[in-house]
């Protein structure tokens, strides 16, 4: 995964949205954190990993990875806003917790980040989110390709006044 490329693509999308919506200079960190939490919840809902009361299967893999990269968009955007983009690195994820536990770790990482807004808490959030990709059986290459595809969709949505 080329993290630098993804940050660049996210920056272009953010600038487009902020210009179009007249949000230049506005602090959107809290709104982006809430949006991230919502996206993580939507992702968990698609996996159905916590729905012990239901026998309905998870959404198709393509839908799950699309939901995953929706969250990644906001993580990248937060890194740009707080000027962390040039200071983070990818970890080599070799293992992760079981899916429900990993989701809980991601929620906890978001809350820790929200309290600290530090580079360390941001790196931890990114690492934990990448571990979630591993728990979902997604490779970093799959995540990157899905991010690129969804970024194009997001630009098209802006063309259509989404």
Tell me about this structure.
The chain has six helices and no strands. The protein is mainly alpha-helical and 162 residues long. It has a single domain, classed as all-alpha NTP pyrophosphatase fold (Orthogonal Bundle). The relative contact order is 0.16. This is Dimeric dUTPase (All-alpha-NTP-PPase superfamily).
What top-tier CATH class fits best? Mainly Alpha
Instruction: Give a count of the beta strands, DSSP E runs of length 2 or more.
Output: 0
CATH third-level topology: all-alpha NTP pyrophosphatase fold
CATH architecture: Orthogonal Bundle
Q: Distance N terminus to C terminus?
A: 28 Å
Helix count?
6
Helix-strand topology string: HHHHHH
Give the helices and strands, then pairings.
Layout: H1 3-20, H2 29-47, H3 61-81, H4 99-116, H5 119-135, H6 140-159
Helix pairs in contact: 1-3, 1-6, 2-3, 2-4, 3-5, 3-6, 4-5
Pfam families: dUTPase_2
Protein name: Dimeric dUTPase (All-alpha-NTP-PPase superfamily)
Structural key phrases:
162 residues; mainly alpha; all-alpha NTP pyrophosphatase fold; 0% strand; single chain
Compact overview of the structure:
This protein has helices at residues 3-20, 29-47, 61-81, 99-116, 119-135, 140-159. It is mainly α and 162 residues long.
């Amino acid at each position: 995964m080329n993290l630098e490329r993804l940050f660049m693509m996210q920056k272009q999308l953010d600038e487009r949205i902020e210009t179009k919506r007249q949000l230049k200079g506005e602090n959107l960190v809290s709104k982006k954190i809430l949006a991230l939490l919502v996206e993580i919840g939507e992702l968990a809902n698609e996996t159905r990993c916590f729905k012990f009361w239901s026998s309905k299967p998870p959404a198709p893999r393509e839908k799950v990875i699309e939901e995953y990269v929706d969250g990644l968009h906001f993580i990248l955007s937060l890194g740009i806003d707080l000027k962390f983009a040039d200071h983070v690195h990818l970890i080599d994820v070799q293992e992760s917790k079981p899916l429900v536990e990993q989701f809980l770790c991601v929620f906890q990482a978001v809350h820790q980040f929200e309290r600290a807004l530090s580079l360390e808490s941001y790196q931890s959030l990114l690492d934990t989110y990448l571990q979630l990709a591993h728990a979902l059986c997604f490779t970093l290459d799959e995540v990157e390709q899905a991010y690129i595809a969804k970024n194009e969709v997001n630009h098209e949505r802006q063309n259509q006044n989404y």
